[in-house]
Write a structure and sequence with these properties.
The chain is built from 13 helices and 19 strands. With 346 residues, the protein is α+β, with helices and mostly antiparallel strands. It folds into three domains: 127 residues, ATPase, nucleotide binding domain (Nucleotidyltransferase, domain 5), CATH 3.30.420; 99 residues, 2-Layer Sandwich (Nucleotidyltransferase, domain 5), CATH 3.30.420; 64 residues, Actin, Chain A, domain 4. The strands form five sheets. The protein has a six-stranded mixed sheet with strand order 3-2-1-9-10-19, with helices on both faces. A hairpin with a 4-residue loop joins strand 11 and strand 12. Helix 3 crosses helix 4 and helix 6 crosses helix 7. The two termini are 26 Å apart. The N terminus is likely disordered.
Length: 346
């Protein structure tokens, strides 16, 4: 009876628990939270960790904290790497969304990568329950992205989605209300950042951090070198590895596309594998309608053009690709009765 009372007072929510960012959607209110998936903790004398910052506040501390403060990214490659930190982070975000309402125990739907193992799915499920959820549902990220992008997933024709998140790129082919193919590769936004860090280090002997690489990717990133005659696309500061002093270099137009070659090729490989594994009729449908790109990685300039050149298939960038997954997760939560076939068991 007490659990029923909690249910009446609850506010259900959909969570896109991403490697880089966590977004929360509440039915009837839309997206109410968009924060970095980071948590800062300090070690207490009794050995327990005390949370001192979460989200944006924790991100400002990244790489700048004393030894006694640790900034943790609870998820790696789209799955939970630090269960206790993930639980505290989810709990904090739930409290922020619910504000100060008492006796609330919401139903929560969380998306997971297509390639998440049963153990990884259970970890997400348990983290949601431990954070205070009354019931936790799971849905695959590419399925949520397809729903959020408005693809005709219930029609008798194949639709393909490629969701490029922070830790993983997920692929899915859907038709007639069913998932016919799903897979993911651990090459996405974070891999783009790492590729830029390594490229600058080996070509220019300059050491930069992942946050600097992310800034360059967002401000000057491009999948294909521009042909407008620009000589410099970005200035970047770091530590000269030969002299040990701060230094600044200028990147050429071809540098970033060249740096991103390996992670983009891994995504291309996943797309080719998906097209090879589905029946020819579905491949024909996909070639006619195109492949839809979602996730933050879809915002990389001219990525759709490069993928088209590599695969021979046209690509379309979904509207508001960064929020497609959380919107689709929210729609699935709102329509649980009709979306039951798309949910997965932990």
């Amino acid at each position: 009876m007490f659990s029923r009372a909690l249910g009446f007072a609850s506010t259900d929510m959909a969570i896109d628990l991403g490697t880089a960012n966590t977004l929360v959607y509440v039915p009837g209110r839309g997206i109410v939270l968009d924060e970095p998936s980071l948590i800062a903790v300090t070690q207490r004398g009794d050995g327990e960790r005390r949370v001192i910052a979460v989200g944006h506040e924790a991100k400002t501390m990244l790489g700048r904290t004393p030894i006694k403060i640790e900034t943790i990214q609870p998820l790696r490659d789209g799955v939970i790497a630090d269960f206790a930190a993930a639980e505290e982070m989810i709990k904090h975000f739930i409290r922020r969304v619910l504000k100060r309402r008492l006796f609330t125990s919401p139903r929560i739907m969380i998306c997971v990568p297509a390639s998440a193992t049963p153990v990884e799915r259970r970890a997400v499920h348990e983290a949601g329950l431990s954070a205070g959820a009354r019931k936790v549902y799971l849905i695959e990220e590419p399925v949520a992205a397809a729903i959020g992008a408005g693809l005709p997933i219930n029609e008798p024709r194949g639709s393909m989605i490629v969701d490029i998140g922070g830790g993983t790129t997920d692929f899915a082919v859907l038709s007639m209300g069913s998932v016919l193919y799903s897979r993911s590769v651990r090459s996405a936004g974070n891999a783009f950042d790492d590729a830029i860090v390594n490229y600058v280090r080996f070509k220019y002997n300059l050491l930069i951090g992942a946050s600097s690489a992310e800034t360059i990717k967002k401000e000057a990133g491009c999948a294909i070198a521009k042909a407008n005659g620009e000589r410099v696309v970005a200035h970047i500061k770091g530590r000269d590895l030969q002299r040990g002093f701060p230094a600044e270099i200028s990147l050429e137009p071809h540098d970033i596309p060249e740096a991103l070659t390996l992670p983009i090729q891994q995504i291309v490989g996943g797309i080719r594998q998906a097209l090879a594994d589905v029946p020819p009729e579905l491949t024909a449908d996909i070639c006619d309608s195109g492949i839809y790109l979602t996730g933050g990685g879809a915002l990389l300039e001219r990525l759709d053009v490069r993928l088209s050149q590599e695969t021979g298939v046209k690509f379309r960038i979904a509207e508001d690709p960064l929020r497609c997954v959380v919107r689709g997760t929210g729609k699935a939560l709102e329509q649980l009765d009709t979306m039951a076939d798309f949910l997965i068991k932990p």
